[in-house]
Structures are given as structure tokens and as C-alpha cells.
Amino acid sequence: MLIAVLFTKPINGASSWFDLKVFTFQPAEFAKICVILLMATVICRIQEKDQNEINAPVKLISCLSIVVVPVLLIIKQPDYGTEMAFLVATALILLIAGLDKKYIIGTMIVILVALPILYNFVLPTHAKSRIQVFLNPESDARGSGYNIIQSKLAIGAGKLFGMGILKGNQTQLGFLYPKTTDFIFSVISEEMGFIIAGAVIITYVVLITKAVYIAKTAKDDLGTYIAMGIAGIFLFHMIENIGMTMGLLPITGVPLPFVSYGGSSLLTNFILLAILMNISGRRQKSIFIE
């Protein structure tokens, strides 16, 4: 599906959706579930005989190949936000699986060396403009920097208790777009204020903490790896979406879980929650007769 979607008509510059007329479908969202489950299963099979087998170069490459293929296809769409979610989930799974420090240090060095090369020779123009706008939104206040400036104005205008439901100036008068997906947190902050916006953040922190706890107390390694991958997905989406609306991170098309409009994202998040509940339930002795 990730290959087939590349041949669809672009929407907002990205070939990420199948338009089935009745509804649109984003395969990259559901690919998160497949990749997490497959990677966790492969790592467990590799570690059946030796826990440190994951650090063997050939075994590690086989694990990374599970992620590299879908990530490259998602970059081709292009959808850099979803691609980063895959990488964060993969990193957490490998860390919990006992990845050797030499690989971690080596990866950090490669990233530091590759960043300027990628920025100057690989990143497309629109991606560079987003980074430049992130560093200095006022440099293109009526163009690429417009949304982030309006977003920060909306968040600040909400103050403590907000301007009231459907009474936000930036959000209801059309200054901020898209308000139902990427900048939904700005709407919450402007119309409901700091207290509700803070409660939303606390709710996500509780959810992610609970996912990590489930990973820590899972019955087996498979449950641990899957739960940590899911925690990584939720963690990245929370930090990136809220961070970009505040001007703390570059703008990407990353939805806020369970809040942003989007059926594929919502369904994927519910499936991830269901898997977490399954892992959590298996920690205790079954009450059913087998």
C-alpha cells in the first residue's frame, strides 16, 4: 500500500492518501502497527538463544531493514513527520532490547555529520523553508512563517481560562489553518485557556507513562518491545505537535493523538491502545478457563 499510494493524486503536496470517495485512507498510519509488531517479533526470535545476539551486525541490519523500507517509502510521499515517528519507536525498542553503546554513539556521530549534508543537498526546498521559518518566523511573516505566528498568537490570547468555545479570534476568523488537524492544540489553548491545555498535556504524560509501565511489567520480552514502540509513537506525536504549535519545533503534518481530525490516525491510535490493554491484561493470571 505504501508503494501504491505514491501513484495517487497529491493532496496538499503529498501522495499519502487513497481517496475512496466515501472516505480517505492513509496507509502510513497503519504501517506503524505492522512495523512495531514485526520488529518486536524478529528481535525476540533473534534473542531466543542469546540476549546479546541483537548486537551482531548482521542481526541488527536485519532488524533495521524492517523499518528502512517503509521509512524510505514514506519519505518519498513526502511525509517527514510520520517518518520520524517510526524512527523514535525503533530507537526505543532497540534501546530496551539491549543495543550496545557503540552503536548509539556511532549513530549520534553519523547524525551530526550527516545533518549539514542532508540540509544542503538532500532536503527539498519546502522542508528547508520550514526549518528557516522555525528559526526565524518573522523572516517570512506573510508566507511560510504565517501559520506559526498565528498559532503563537492564538495560544497567548487564550490566557488562563480561554476566550470561550467557538469564540477564538485566530481560529474562528480564519487566521489559522489547518485548525482541525495540525494546529488543533492552538484552538484548545485559545478557546479553553492554559488550564485545559495543561490538562491535555498531563493526560498525554499519564498515557505515555502508563505505556512505559506496561512495557516494564509485561509478561515477556515481546510485550515489552511492543509496548515501548507504542509509547514511542505517542511520545513523538505529543511532543512534535504541541512543540510546533508553540514554535519550539519545526512544523510537520503530525496529528495530535485522539484530538486532531483524521480517521486513519484515530483508528490507528485506538488499535495501539487495544494492543497495550492486551499486553497489560496478560500480566495477570487469566480468569477464563482455557
Q: How many H/I helical runs?
A: 10
Number of domains: 1
Q: What is the number of beta strands?
A: 2
Low-confidence stretches: 286-290
Across the major sheet, the strand order is 1-2
The secondary-structure class comes to mainly alpha
Strand content: under 5%
Percentage of residues assigned to helices: 55-70%
Which series of helices and strands comes N to C?
EEHHHHHHHHHH
- State the separation between the terminal residues, measured CA to CA: 38 Å
Rounded to the nearest angstrom, the radius of gyration is 20 Å
**For the report, how would you describe the main beta sheet?**
2 strands, antiparallel
Structure description:
With 290 residues, this protein is mostly helical. It has one domain. The chain has helices at residues 27-46, 57-76, 80-96, 101-122, 125-135, 146-157, 169-172, 184-216, 221-245, 263-281; strands at 18-19, 24-25. A two-stranded antiparallel ribbon has the order 1-2. Helix 1 (27-46) packs antiparallel against helix 9 (221-245) and helix 9 packs antiparallel against helix 10. The chain is globular, with a radius of gyration of 20 Å. The chain starts with 17 loop residues before the first strand and ends in a 9-residue tail after the last helix.
